[in-house]
Write a structure and sequence with these properties.
Blueprint lengths: L6 E6 L4 H11 L5 E8 L3 H11 L3 E4 L2 H11 L6 E4 L1 H8 L6 E4 L7 H9 L3 E4 L2 H18 L2 E4 L2 H9 L15 E8 L17 H5 L8 H9 L1 H14 L6 E5 L5 E7 L4 E5 L5 H9 L30 H12 L1 H19 L8 H10 L9 H21 L3
Parallel strand pairs: 1-2, 1-5, 2-3, 3-4, 5-6, 6-7, 8-9
Antiparallel strand pairs: 8-10, 10-11
Helix pairs in contact: 2-3, 4-5, 5-6, 6-10, 6-13, 9-13, 10-12, 12-13, 12-14, 13-14, 13-15, 14-15
Magnesium ion binds next to helix 7.
Length: 399
């Protein structure tokens, strides 16, 4: 029998949708994976249950009062050491006793810990697309310096990764030399066929009810506006170093084909699977091996029809805004992401209507100048300014 070296994991965003799917896969392979560190923002009840079940060495709550409540709930004799604060989350990502980090925090809030894991040379599985949208070039450059193996979890990017050739055997990098274009599929979300003039009155519950995927609230709203696909075009461009024109989006309502790679000889390779994040998570966790993920393969005779159509620009203005930002540069994409986070939070809290999300982002980008910038400090200060500008536009359109 072959001995498998077990991977020691740190899960950033352990209580979220990605965290939960990751732990589901991990629990199927106790010989392969050991949970070393878990982090979350403030969900004490979920974190207590995870610490009881997985007994990590460290559990971090970014929120200090939540950390105190977690320490109370676990009691003094529990093997898990509880830590508090954002700096402790970043430290956990670079913890020497960790081999593999799953970046599953939502939003630009996950950038610092994702970058710390990459700089520490970990194997880093990235779900946190906003980190790549804000500073993807810096993350990828840091990986080249440290030798970190960076793997995508976002289903489309994981599908692309699976369809692209390796640059060298055993290396995670993928070559795009012979590739004509990368194609990302999008379900079109819950409002693909809803009359556009009724989008002003959609409720939070309607926007969060995705037809095929069950996910956190922020990414669910992004899927409804299709900003999610816009962020993913930027993510693909940064991750695979492909220009905007060569990253295409096609609507595919069944969500069974996740991505396609078109080669210059006319061949197209596609990755298919059920809309279940455990598949791309397992593919990234075990890469280059394959492990059981708790997901059934497709029965081709029962798939029925697979439909593909171009997205309607009038229905999904966020897609065009994201593409324009990508073509303008890093400062624009950082500002786009910041404005989107502010607009989505304002929609989720009932401050603005769904149809105001795109205008808040557009007005924010138009009201700023986006000079070329390549260092992290400059990008972070630019994205902070974008948050302030977006907040002003939210007040203007507050209902
Ligand atoms: P979620 O809201 O369900 O979970 C977010 C997690 O991050 C939680 O554990 C939360 O405690 C933690 N968190 C939130 N804010 C934080 C902060 N400021 N500091 C520290 N921790 C914080 O989100 P999700 O749906 O799991 O998405 C996570 C990321 O993965 C997002 O970037 C999303 O775009 C991406 N993603 C998700 C899916 C999916 O199926 N859910 C698919 C593809 C990509
Ligand atoms: Mg995706």
């Amino acid at each position: 029998t072959k001995t498998i070296m077990s991977q020691r994991l740190c899960l950033l965003g352990a209580t979220g949708s990605i965290g939960t799917s990751t732990l589901d896969v991990v629990a199927r392979h106790p010989d392969r994976y050991r949970i070393q560190a878990l982090t979350a923002l403030r969900d004490v009840a979920s974190m207590t249950a995870l610490c009881e079940r997985f007994r990590p060495a460290i559990a971090v709550m970014a929120d200090a009062s939540a950390a105190a409540a977690l320490a109370d709930a676990l009691g003094p004799d529990h093997p898990t050491q509880v830590q508090a604060g954002e700096a402790a989350v970043v430290e956990a990502a670079a913890y020497p006793e960790v081999d593999t980090v799953v970046a599953g925090i939502v939003g630009a809030a996950g950038l610092a810990s994702c970058l710390a894991a990459v700089e520490a040379g970990k194997r880093v599985l990235i779900a946190n697309k906003e980190a790549l949208v804000v500073a993807g070039d810096l993350v990828m450059a840091a990986a080249r310096r440290s030798g970190a193996v960076v793997l995508p979890i976002d289903s489309e990017h994981n599908g692309l990764f699976q369809c692209l050739p390796e640059t060298a055997p055993g290396r995670a990098e993928r070559s795009v030399n012979d590739v004509d274009r990368l194609v990302l599929t999008a379900s079109g979300g819950p409002f693909r066929t809803r009359p556009v003039e009724t989008l002003a009155t959609v409720t939070v519950a309607e926007a969060c009810a995705h037809p095929n995927w069950s996910m956190g609230r922020k990414i669910s709203v992004d899927s409804a506006t299709m900003m999610n696909k816009g962020l993913e075009v930027i993510e693909a461009s940064r991750f695979f170093e492909m220009e905007s024109e060569r990253v295409e989006v096609v609507i595919h309502p069944q969500s069974l084909v996740h991505a396609l790679v078109q080669y210059r000889d006319g061949s197209t390779l596609a990755q298919l699977g059920r809309p279940d994040m455990r598949t791309p998570i397992a593919a990234a966790l075990a890469w280059p091996a394959r492990i059981e993920a708790g997901v059934e393969g497709l029965d081709m005779t029962r798939l029925g029809q697979l439909d593909f159509e171009p997205p309607e620009p009038g229905r999904f203005p966020c897609l065009g805004l994201a593409r324009a930002a990508l073509e303008s540069g890093s400062a624009s994409t950082a500002a786009l992401n910041a404005a989107n986070e502010i607009a989505v939070a304002a929609f989720l809290s009932g401050e603005i209507g769904f149809h105001r999300i795109a205008p808040v982002i557009e007005a924010t980008l138009e009201g700023m100048t986006h000079a070329p910038m390549s260092d992290l400090e400059a990008l972070l200060s630019h994205e902070q300014s974008a948050r302030h500008v977006a907040g002003e536009h939210v007040r203007r359109w507050r209902q």
